[in-house]
Every structure is written in C-alpha cells, then in structure tokens.
Amino acid sequence: MDLTSILSNPLIELALIFGDGLLFGLGIKKGVWSVLLIVMAVLLGEYINYSVLPKSSLSSFETNVKDHILYVLQNINQIIPFSNIGAIGVTLILFIAGFVIGYLKG
C-alpha cells in the first residue's frame, strides 16, 4: 500500500480535516493574543511618549484600522462568496468542530 491510497481513504480525509480545523483554531487563538499584546505595548509606548513605531501615531493607526474594517464589511461578498457555499457537509462540520476545540483548548 502506498501513501496515496492510504490518504484517499474517506475516514483518513475526515480525520485530516478535523486536524486542520484544530490547528487553525490553535493558531487563531495564539494570533489573537499576540495581536492584543502588541496593541497594548504600542498603547503603553504612546502613553509614556515613546514612539514604538516611527513616523506613526495612534490616531493614524486607528483611522487605518477603521477604514480597513469598513472596506471588509462593504465588500464581504467579494471576499467570501457565500453564494457558492451550498449545503453544509460533514467536512465543514468537522472542520468547525476542530476549530472550536482548538480555539478553546489553545
């Protein structure tokens, strides 16, 4: 038996999809915490009048973040085409379950 025939087994594919969701959940949780800690460090640096990021200010950062969030909200259909999703399958459910478990346990 070669590796291709083993990985094409439907049960192995479902286990890999679950593992993929688990890894995404772990990565997202660690990423969210790192972004929050970086923002807190920049805010603390601005408070003590120490520019962590040269040639930038807190107001310009805030404006850029707001503009980006508004752009994503206005163009969400082009970013994530919801019309092509179709029915919720077992793979999507397993991925979401792995994602939630990874996020909560990470």
Q: Which secondary structure elements does this structure contain, and how are they paired or packed?
A:
Elements: H1 3-7, H2 10-47, H3 58-74, H4 76-79, H5 90-105
Helix pairs in contact: 2-5
Q: Number of DSSP strands?
A: 0
Query: Helicity level, as a percent range?
Result: over 70%
What share of the residues does DSSP label as strand, in percent? under 5%
Distance separating the two termini: 35 Å
Structural class by SSE content: mainly alpha
The H/E string reads HHHHH
How would you describe the shape? elongated
Cα radius of gyration in angstroms: 20 Å
- Mean residue pLDDT: 79
The low-confidence runs, each spanning 5 or more residues with pLDDT under 50, are: none
Major pleated sheet: none
Tell me the number of helical segments per DSSP (H or I, 4 or more residues long): 5
Task: Describe what this molecule looks like in 3D.
The model has no long low-confidence stretch (mean pLDDT 79). The chain starts with a helix and ends with a helix. Helix 2 crosses helix 5. The chain is elongated and about 65 Å long. The protein has 106 residues and is mainly α.
What attributes characterize this protein structure?
106 residues; 75% helix; 0% strand; elongated
